[in-house]
Amino acid sequence: MAGALPPAERRGGVILAVYVALSLLLLVVGDHLPQTALRGIGAALFAPLDRVVLGIDRLAGAWRENQQLHLRVTTLELENVRLRSLEAENRALREQLQLPGYRGLALQPAEVLALTGEPYPASATISAGTRQGVHLGDAVVTSDGLVGRIGEVYGGFARVVLLTDPNASVACEVESTAVLGMLRFTPAPRPRLVLTLVPFADTVRVGQSVLTSDLSRRYPRWIPVGRVVRLGVAEGGLTQEIELEPAARLTRMRYVFIVPGPPAAPGAP
Amino acid sequence: MRGLGLFVFSLVAALLLRSTALSALAARGIVIDVLAFVVIVWSLRHGAAWGATFGFVIGLIADLDATHWLGRHALILCVIGYVVGFLARTLVRESGRTQFMLLALATAAHQAWVVPFELGGMGGLASGWPYFLERVLVAALATAPVGTLALTVARRLFGRPLFGNALRQPG
Questions:
Q1: Higher model confidence: residue A59 or residue A162?
Q2: Where are the domains of chain A?
Q3: Residues of B in Cβ contact (< 8 Å) with A35
Q4: B-chain residues within 8 Å CB-CB of A269?
Q5: CA end-to-end span of chain B
Q6: Which of A247, A223, A239, A234 is nearest to A171 (CA)?
Q7: How does it sit in the membrane (chain B) (predicted)?
């Protein structure tokens, strides 16, 4: 059969066979290979190019966004004045009740260079790394809410594992109700964020906000995660399955903020 | 040397487009399969061996970027590159209808192969088949016209055929 083909076709067939064999081998053993270093090299090569492409894209929206940000800063400053007086009152009350005080979050800004994954991005490359004091496992947020956590760190950039990564999970609570659950991204039957492990005894309503809970080791408490959009029953029928709309716009991020997390336990991923 | 430069430029341009401009569109459910598009263009222009090579390399880079299942894009894209390159010898490559059909079929094949991995295998596919069908159809119907239009515009800009006619007729 092969002899009936011209030399160019025969060579093409051999090349294809080699590539197919290599691809199949990688599919079988790929997860055991050290991919982090290769991804680091790739991210380092692509980071300057990503900056150029994104710079052109973002220049157009910068003027309009500047106006919106001025308005938002003014609104937030006015709100901040009110919240500071409430915080002082809250601190005094917590001291009287002998409860531990709440500490504010230290934020490290970074630019989003690239998003990876279709149709929903599962990871993002950002412009801050070990040189900027970023550590593995640090939480990543936007002004709207939680984005994910640092999954890989390099010198001047890092990869963020987004909430939409199927392997990511976040311990959450429904705002003002103390209802606890575990947030996961479910790819089937359609891609969505769901709050799982919520007992039927707990009442949750559409529209309520979901925040990170203090049961999470990775994330500080009370970071907005999403809003309840649909209530359902989990597979097996023992708990509720609550569909969320993410608070942060994961597909349209320009800047994110890294929240330093607690030091990782020895041997922890 | 010029060929290598074009090879690298095509790789970088496609991957940059995928991770920046097209990612927002993909999140709205409209996947423009730029990987399948560039593999087809490369195969139509350079034949089966180069098509398979280009498909394998760009697929491998896309796999590395995606963290999981190394080899899934590389496998299907090298096969698409080879098949399209092989067929290119007998097709009227400048025909818009040919390009449309090739883009639609290649995109459908690419998406039909990679989406089950995202759904978590056959178990996920059993419950997620409506999403699977929607994704494959939308990607094919979005990529084919956009790709054909891009090739038409490129042909007008260059003022000459991009691929030339069939190299030879079969038989």
A1: A162
A2: 35-102, 108-164, 169-246
A3: 64, 67, 70
A4: none
A5: 35
A6: A223
A7: Multi-pass membrane protein
The answer, yes or no, to whether residue A199 has pLDDT greater than 80, is yes
Predicted pLDDT at B133:
92
Residues A50, B120: C-beta atoms closer than 8 Å: no
Cis peptide before A166 (omega within 30 of 0): no
User: Residue A265: which pLDDT band, with cuts at 50, 70 and 90?
Assistant: low
Which residue, chain included where needed, has tokens 């809970």? A213
Instruction: Kindly tell me if the per-residue pLDDT of B46 is higher than 80.
Output: yes
Question: pLDDT tens for residues A100-135?
Answer: 766 667 788 898 888 887 777 888 999 899 988 899
Residue among A20, A120, A123 minimizing CB distance to B78: A20
Q: CB under 8 Å to A20, separation ≥6 — which residues?
A: B75, B78, B79
Q: Do B135 and A119 touch (CB under 8 A)?
A: yes
Which residues, other chains included, contact B159 with Cβ-Cβ below 8 Å and sequence gap of 6+?
none
How far, in Å, are A143, A149, A183, B80, B87 from residue A135 at the CA level? Answer: 20, 10, 23, 41, 51
Tell me the C-alpha distance between A106 and B36, whole Å.
Answer: 43
Write the DSSP string, A109-167. EEEEEEEE-SSS--EEEES--GGGT--TT-EEE-SSSEEEEEEEE-SS-EEEEETTSTT
- Token pair belonging to A203: 């009442």
State the DSSP code for A104.
Answer: P
Q: Cα dihedral sign for B37, B38, B42, B47? A: negative
How distant, in Å, are the alpha carbons of A79, A85, A97, A104, A215 from that of A101?
21, 15, 11, 10, 17
Please list every residue in chain B whose beta carbon sits closer than 8 Å to the beta carbon of residue A4: none
Q: Is B157 an interface residue toward A (CB < 8 Å)?
A: no
Express each pLDDT in A57-84 by its tens digit: 677 677 778 888 888 888 888 888 888 8
Which residue in the set B65, B69, B135 is minimally distant from A30, CB to CB? Answer: B69
Question: Chain A contacts of B16, Cβ < 8 Å?
Answer: 46, 49-50, 53
Topology of the domain comprising A108-164? Thrombin, subunit H (2.40.10)
Q: Kindly indicate whether the domain formed by A169-246 is annotated with CATH number 2.40.10.350.
A: yes
